[in-house]
Amino acid sequence: MAEQIERIDKETSGDRRIYPPHVLVFSVFASIVLCFFSNQTIFDSPLPGYFGALFSIFGIWLVAYCRKLFIEFETEIIPFKESSTLLQCGPYSYSRNPIYLGMTFVLLGLCFQLNDPLPFVVPLLFFIWVNICFVLPEEKMMREVYGDEFIKYTGQVRRWL
């Protein structure tokens, strides 16, 4: 199994050094900068900002909770590294990618807090990038490593929501 993961790792990731948390941090700064350039507002009420704060807090909690599960099950959290367990409990029983989903929630929440239309492009770009560069290749790897167990899981749990 280790050789199979190593082969898939070389095929799918090459010399990958930019991971979703790095892009998340960059995306937060990009959203704030875009807000300064746009200087428009969407909502007259502060309620969407409060909603956005709750959305971001939920996203942070979701990522932290999933990280706790990886530690608890003693499996690798870094994409394309050898994983010892196919997590199917907790948030993984509702979404196959709750960590990436949580990161997207953080960005969407920030956009509502910024109350500007331009930054909303950032979570969309993040979602597309994560899906193409991580989710699809990871699913290919998981299918090869876990076989029928992963195929059954994909039939029971959606990719995102």
Write the topology of this structure.
Blueprint: H1 2-13, H2 20-38, H3 47-72, H4 98-114, H5 121-146, H6 148-156
Give a quick precis of the structure.
This protein has helices at residues 2-13, 20-38, 47-72, 98-114, 121-146, 148-156.
* Low-pLDDT residue intervals, each spanning 5 or more residues: none
Task: Provide the succession of SSEs.
Answer: HHHHHH
Query: Residue share in helices?
Result: 55-70%
> How many DSSP E strands?
0
As a percent range, the share of strand residues is: under 5%
Helix count from the secondary structure assignment = 6
Can you tell me the number of structural domains? 1
Average per-residue pLDDT, rounded, comes to 92
Q: Measured on Cα atoms, how large is the radius of gyration?
A: 17 Å
- Biggest beta sheet attributes: none
Amino- and carboxy-terminal Cα gap? 30 Å
Class computed from helices, strands and strand pairing? mainly alpha
Morphology: elongated
